[in-house]
Amino acid sequence: MSGLARLYTRITGNEILILGPARAGKTSFSEYLQYGLLEPEQETATTITPHKSASFRIKIGKQSALEMKVKRAVHVAGEIGPTEHARLPEERRPQAIVVPGAPHIRDFRMCGRLANTLL
Predict the structure, then answer these.
(1) How sure is the predictor about 103, in pLDDT bands with cuts at 50, 70 and 90?
(2) 76 is in which domain, residue-wise?
(3) In the chain, what are the helix, strand and coil shares in percent, each to the nearest 5?
(4) Element (H, E) at 52
(5) Model confidence at 112, in pLDDT bands (50, 70, 90)?
(6) Under 8 Å between Cβ of 75 and 18
(7) Nearest-angstrom CA–CA distance, 115 and 107
(8) Is 55 exposed, middle or buried, given 0-12, 13-18 or 19+ CB atoms closer than 10 A?
């Protein structure tokens, strides 16, 4: 991506916030979005501080007809806990939130009260 295109993406792009518990694959997912590479599962360094990617574009579909400009993808340490994770969307105001490894909503149907709360 040229310098001018990168600047345009930085100004007009979307922010993606990637949240989840430790070892859920937040860093791997962020790298997959940015580079299209999915590495085999392996030990990785623990994320201590929020990691912000450079701007990039995702093109999918027939003849890359759908394009999403990403200002930055931000993933944070899973060790900070769910309460802090819940505060981040209000602080950062991302256009998308991704939770790798999150259970499917149908899995909550077996959890009684939790299912009633979520559904």
Answers:
(1) low
(2) 3-118
(3) 40, 20, 35
(4) strand 51-52
(5) very low
(6) yes
(7) 9
(8) buried
State the burial class of residue 98 (Cβ atoms within 10 Å of its Cβ: 0-12, 13-18, 19+). middle
Domain count, the chain: 1
Q: Are 51 and 27 in contact (CB under 8 A)?
A: yes
pLDDT digits (tens, 9 = 90+) for 28-70: 888 888 888 877 777 777 777 788 888 898 888 888 888 889 9
Give the predicted TM-score (pTM) of the model: 0.71
Query: What integer pLDDT is reported at residue 110 of this predicted model?
Result: 41
How many whole angstroms separate alpha carbon 110 and alpha carbon 102?
15
Q: Calculate ∠ Cα 62-65-71, nearest 5°.
A: 130
* Contact predicate 59/17, CB 8 Å: no
Q: Which residue's structure tokens are 């979307």?
A: 14
Integer Cα distance of 28 and 43 in angstroms: 11
